[in-house]
Amino acid sequence: MHYDKLAHDVFSWVDEKIKKHGPRLAGDEASRNAADDIYQDMEKFADHVGKDDFYIHQGAFLGWIRILVVAYLAATLFLWINQPLISIILTLSAILILILQFFLYLPLLDRLYPKRLSRNVYGVIEPKEEVKRQVILSGHHDSAHVFNFFIHQPKLYNLRTTGSIGIVILLLLLSIVQLILPSITLLQLILPILASIGFLWVGQMWFFSSKKASPGAGDNLVASGLSLVLGQHYAALKKSEDALKHTRIIMMSFDAEEEGLRGARAFARAHETMLKKLPTSMINMDCLYDEKELFFLTSDLNNFVKLDETLANDLNHTAESIGLKTKTQPLAFLTGGTDAAEFAKIGISATTIIGMPWTNDSRSNVYHTPNDTLEHVQLDVVKSTIHIIDHWIRQNDLA
Fold this sequence. Notes:
Layout: H1 3-21, H2 29-43, E1 48-57, H3 63-80, H4 84-103, E2 115-125, E3 133-140, E4 145-147, H5 157-180, H6 185-202, E5 209-213, H7 217-236, E6 247-254, H8 262-270, H9 272-277, E7 280-288, E8 294-297, E9 299-300, E10 305-306, H10 309-321, E11 327-329, H11 340-345, E12 349-355, H12 379-397
Parallel strand pairs: 3-6, 3-7, 7-12, 8-11
Antiparallel strand pairs: 1-2, 2-6, 4-5, 8-12, 9-10
Helix pairs in contact: 1-7, 1-12, 3-4, 3-5, 3-6, 4-5, 5-6, 10-12
């Protein structure tokens, strides 16, 4: 297979889509138009195509951030007027919302935000003979809100975000102390002062996210393009000796990944019967920037959802067998999630391949910024990802 050519085809495809559709927030017309465009591309060569509409509540996923700021400010004011019980209730509520909305990606706040139409698209390439297994190759076409903290003082990102959460927890403890020790007058003065100083840190979280969207090349249109180009390649080989014999390929482009994996969740729920009818493996792709940083996830969703470690290890061994250096690792706490999590939740074998460091201290310097353009995606990372996936698919197709 000519992996160089396929990688260049991915780049050409992504360049065309970004020029045509620009940034693509989930729920906006640009993201739906991009989905329709991808659908039309798949329709030209796929055996079957599909388009699934679903609704999101735009902005809800990051809504916990400003709730945290408001709750902290209100709790501090109640501490000043010696109402620590109310402060405890406010801080506990903010922490609970954080846990449910961000740690676990549950739709706790969704109905408080405007309802918007979103769109998943997919295409199916059938094998030459009997279908014995199916492989999902997936990315997402929506792009992220620009994160201001990745633009201004990105080295302090972890300290500013995790630190703010820590200060809210500290305020909860201060409120409990004031409630337990109401008779110590000096303490009743010192604790509100400490809480007020803490607001200087927590208050900056109000400006965490911009209303603007990134171009979303590496995160994550390249993955959608890779899925489509590789599927198109398998479709072109169907009448040759190189055709896949028993493996169905499902090319998948999700919407609303940046809104808390809502697109993957909608698809997994709507198509659970089809997904479980045959042995199914999902190879999701996200943030393919740097070939030297390729790894496969063994867990997801802030490390709360286990992915298929066997699949991740198999892909890692496949990479090693073709001379590529990769690794496996869990997804670190407080670093978010990928679409693979929603498939793992319903029992589908899934992993995500990522091509950048994935910690809050070290990520690509263009991630969730206006600089997430194609020039910052290495051609080699796309080429290597195609090589790994194709080699793994062909190995298993013969098994």
